[in-house]
Amino acid sequence: MAQRLALRRLLSLTPRRPPAPPGRAFGTSAGRRSTFNVQDGSDFQDRVVNSPKPVVVDFHAQWCGPCKILGPRLEKMVAKQEGKVVMAKVDIDDHTDLAIEYEVGAVPTVLAMKNGDVVDKFVGIKDEDQLEAFLKKLIGA
Fold this sequence. Notes:
Elements: H1 2-13, H2 30-33, E1 35-37, H3 41-49, E2 55-60, H4 65-79, E3 86-91, H5 96-101, E4 109-114, E5 117-123, H6 128-139
Parallel strand pairs: 1-3, 2-3
Antiparallel strand pairs: 2-4, 4-5
Helix pairs in contact: 4-6
């Protein structure tokens, strides 16, 4: 009985945060704003092929272990570029047609696109230094 009373007192002293407004997420970061999931072929055309900025395209799959390592690492590196480049994530199971069109034979496959053209590509995991060099080459820095 005394424990319950003490717990109630403790809970009444703990400040409570108001609930987040609907549709808002906690902890938005620059990395999230510079990264998006491709919804379909026309979305890919609009946001990747017709993008005025260079685009890093991450072809991945939910079941792919290396993709789960590379994806967050790549998002972090793209966010560091402060808007000079954006990142499109393409799930090959949902968008097989895009994977075939861009000759994705293994995941993760990452394309660097500029003005609608593939200008560079790699397959597999890269460390942060290699990713930074890949991005700087794409941006032209």
